[in-house]
Prior knowledge:
By secondary structure, the chain is an alpha/beta fold. Helices cover about 30% and strands about 15% of the residues.
Amino acid sequence: MSEHLRPAEKAITESDDFIAQQLEGASIPTLLMSLIHLTGDTSILDGPIRPRVAMLGGFQGELSEADQATVRRMALKALTDYRDRGGTLPPQPSPQLVQRMMNFMVGERVGDEYVPMMLEELALDGNDSRAPRWSREVPAAVREKFHVLVIGAGMSGLLQALRLKEAGIPFTVVEKNDSVGGTWYENRYPGCRVDIANHFYSYSFEPYAWTEYFSRRDELLEYFRSFVERHGLGPHIHFNTEVTGARYDAAAATWEVSLKSASGTLPASLRVNAIVSAVGQLNRPRIPEIPGRTEFRGVQVHSAEWDPALDLRGKRVAVVGSGASAFQLVPEVAKVAQQLYVFQRSAPWMLPNPLYHEAVSSQFRWLVEHVPYYGRWFRFLIFYPGSDGILPAIRIDKDFPHPERAVNALNDAYRAQLVEYMKSQVNGDLALLEKVTPKFPFMGKRMLQDNGSWLRALQQPNVKLIDEGVQRIDATGIVGASAHYDVDVIVWATGFHATKFLYPMDIVGKSGRTLGEVWGDEPRAYLGITVPDFPNLFCLYGPATNLAHAGSIIFHSECQVRYTTACIQALLENGKRAMDCRADVYEDYTRRLIAELETLVWSHPAADSWYRNRAGRVVTTSPWRLADYWKWTRAPNLGDYILTG
Length: 645
């Protein structure tokens, strides 16, 4: 059994009273699942206490207080019995029983196509089934001649490094920063935190007792740093090293990679058999080209290039942008700035979530660490409601009579609920409500988790929301459409060059064309991973793999890393040197991808977002169901590729 998947992290030795106290912080549907593991008693599934619905952010299944108390009493007896018998468990439930447990927990039938994916996520047998496995033996001497370069030591790059290490395939990781962590190293602005529930925003095989439901940047960075240490990946990573270019040598079936390294630990040129790009989509800050920006005499900083020494106390500050970073940053800056101007180009939709800034109770953490399978089932509870269920609400109905505000009737109903939610926070200020109500349909851009802090901040006396746009910058501040705003600091919360994949690397394929030339402003890849004419080049978090409707980007990364690793293994198992995506496969996938994207809300004319290129086509985000993408990436179909020996 994997060290990180054992059913209970720590033995239970505490008193009955202590255990009872911890149970007060339990998610009852999750606890019911652990009860079956503890006792083997499946009559729970036919009993009167039944969770009614699984909702994002809701952990109690709408169970009454009386029912919750009953389950806690049942759990106390089961846990003390478990403690007293030395921590032994009944036999594992069968897959059929686990499916019944899933249905029971979420209050609905889990579709057959989701069951295998969810069984894999749960990993109740302690088996990390996404780890690489060889279909035939490949001698170590053969594996050692195949070297892989991984570009980037963020979440995806570290996962790829682990899988290559587990497979016994030599690899080198280069990282442009001086630390691992990717976005969680680079972003350190005040208020920076994840906006996907943390018990799901973690590797499936590496659970963690998070201290917050949506952890802040420092805890996330520590998670990835400890991951490197625990798995011994450090010696493979070379920091302060960038790939400036790579050229494919068809005769040798290798890549010649050009490096710029401040560390001096690698040569200027490196020859490798395969490249895995794990550079991400959101790591090259973008500042709009606004006239006069160089004239400003104060401080300018992008949110992703925050200077920890920057002190905003008593300062006049402008935050340009109202997306995810600004949404987190503005409430913190409002606490210390003398005056804060928030320049909003487009108001965001917000999802009510009272847990967004909440700490995980010590009781809940104890349950995760001690109660068999509690953490695994809690992950399922927060994963399943976010698995494709929102798709019907974002599909464009061409006959819907109000396309100016919604894409279908269900989308319109969600919109109305969220407008009422915002209305409840503006204290009768209808002018503010008009400003903060998005002018595009629900889900048209990235949805933001909200516990009320955004609108509270905008209503503070030292904060002013400006929705008229920035005309230009001058020496002392920002010129808007109707006024000049004197400021000491400008914070650019204006996002990234998200559509410039692998930018600014110069990647030359076997025909001599660069990847930039092939892609232009419309990057595409088969499954978001491979591109014809670029053999043995694999992208993680590549074109059209951002998740905006379901799941977590870590889930998608695990799918892509498994696929990529399996491709490399297939080469070695079949005595081949290279694999090149077939053009017809790529073109067919691209046609289907574009057609699917055009049916969804992100293609609505009013939804102008970083998901789209200059021509207005969605190029960053995936339209596929999680169940489908998971199935497509479980193993490569070698018929999709041209293999060379």
